[in-house]
Amino acid sequence: MIQFRSEAVARAQAPDVLDQPVRLTSPRTWLVLAALALVVIVGAVWAFTGTLRTSVDARGLLTLPRGSFPIQAIKGGQVSDVFVKPGGVVAPDGRIAAVRSGGVTVEVRSPARGRVFSVPVRHGQVVRPGETLAVAEYADGPDDRLVAALFVPAARAAGVRVGGQVDLTVESAAAAGRYGVLRGRVKAVDPAIWTLKDVAAFVGDEGMAQLVGGPGPGPVQRVTVELTRSSATASGYAWSTASGPPSGPRSRTPVTGAIHGPAMRPIDWILP
Question: How high is the pLDDT of residue 180?
Answer without folding.
Answer: 86
